[in-house]
Amino acid sequence: MATGTHFFTSSEGERDNITANFGNFSYEGPAFNAATATTSDPITVYRFFNKRTGTHFFTSSEGERDNVIANSSDTYSFEGEAYKALSSDTTNPNAKSLYRFFNKVTGSHFYTSSDVERDSIIKNSSASYNFEGVAYKVLDSTIAPAGAPVAQAAAMPPQGEAALQAGVVDAAPADLTAAIGGLQAADPQPVAFGPGAFTGEATGGFAGLFPQQRSDWAAMFAA
Question: What kind and span of H or E run contains 132?
Answer without folding.
Answer: strand 129-139
